[in-house]
């Protein structure tokens, strides 16, 4: 009876273990299949329409690098619906028929979700019906949003036609009486630019469009044609609107400048940052353009924070920020599509293309805002980009583009004139840096120039420390020089010497081998009278200043904005008011000499003494043990006597001390093992000896090399 019961118990026990084993196996298979499903399941794709005729190979490469980094970050967070996102590049070489073929073929793939890019109104319109039939969204780079009104799945990353018309009319009013036009044949955007000019001529009797020239794609100019064209423009015109593809734009500008043409030129199809700045005549030219990548020299702060990832892949120079901005805009468009498809209020049974189209509608009027690397994204009523319509200017005798002196920002009732503050910050000293107080003192010269009478009183240094009595900023500003130009743009110029205490956000995880960012952040002191800040070109920015205990690495200017959402008429319509902030950021690395001499060298000495003690014979165990215990206590005492920031996480300094404790403890443990097992186990004794005399020093040397390279 007892034997039968025992047998049954054993069978039940075996069955229980078997069930547990099966459950563990099933769970393991499920987890493994989930992990590998991302590699074997069909990937979603986003088509990126680029044009190698207008983009140089370096520009193309940068776009691919920035997009790849964005996709890596999206896929690391689970992609979309648990599936990986890939980029599918389509190069149409500027040919609408080739683009139609590429899109017709790629759209058949049900895993292709949407398209981005397509820098042309003509090419965007060529594929509009294909996209509509297949319910596929496009975030394109075109301005003629009036042509795509019948296609609700098409959005533009450029400003709309209304903004373009306002900018061009204002420019013609200030700069032109007799304008010439040179355009690309059969290009809708070029035709619309001419239409805007002619519309302005009907309203302004003193303005005339005197010449109109059309050239096909990749037209080969003869020397005689160029001579006649330059002669005609010099005699009869004071302004030129040039709307050809990038290659011919550069060829024609070089030829016209060489033949003595010095009138202002508005760039149509080619971006101002793509104009050949290596030309011998570039410096003397005056160029205008609807700015493609925000404020020249001022990337969005989020994109600036990503820039170190791309620095090695991007050549420095004028085009660096254009390339980063152009790539960042495409990366943002992908992020916007993914966010649109991931919203919770979308129909559950809808396919992913339908979800994207439904989700994008929420960004019209700024009801939702996507916070991207390049910008904060929302769309206007005509489904064009909701950012500011900015006019870029390459002034005569300057080597790089900047904002024109006067801009027009959006308001509830139309456009409001806003001055540009040309601000150059010449740093003299950064000192008294406090990790605990997260503050530093800075002394610098601030040069301000604008067509409006803007002084330091119009600037709010937002990260300045405040007086506890009245919250006044702890800033001292002394006027050094002031003057006003009486010709040209009539600029007001002021030079101040400013000193004060500023705050920063220290990241001390890598202390004492850390790098910190020290910003001087400014914005208008009157939110109703906004201005934009234009810094000088990078080569004119100061990089030599005093900073005891820190080494200069880099500096940049970044912009950010607080978008204030308000309701008009008690919820009838939401409006978004941007409030701009501009930060002059100095990246510096903490000097390592102090930590190396006061901490790292003593710790290495303690580790070396501990290592040498391992050669003492086991019969002198008391001496050996005393040395190693003393070394452990000495390293602990050094830790408490060394400066360390009070944080909720371990810094690199803490990890160095923890490593020291662990290594000395293992040395002490193996010494005890050798003593105890001296006559019991020759194998354990040899293993302990190999660790102490060979493995221990190799680990210490490897860790030291790693720390030096951090």
What's the helical proportion of residues?
25-40%
Strand content: 25-35%
| Mean pLDDT, all residues | 87
Unreliable sequence segments: 1-10
Strand order of the largest sheet: 7-6-8-9-10-14-15
- The first-to-last residue Cα distance is 72 Å
Task: Give the overall silhouette.
Answer: globular
What integer value in Å does the Rg equal?
A: 33 Å
Structural class: alpha/beta
Task: Name the assembly state.
Answer: single chain
Counting DSSP H or I runs of 4 or more residues, the number of helices is 16
Number of strands: 25
Pfam families: Peripla_BP_6
Family: Belongs to the leucine-binding protein family.
Protein name: ABC transporter substrate-binding protein
Organism: Adhaeribacter terreus
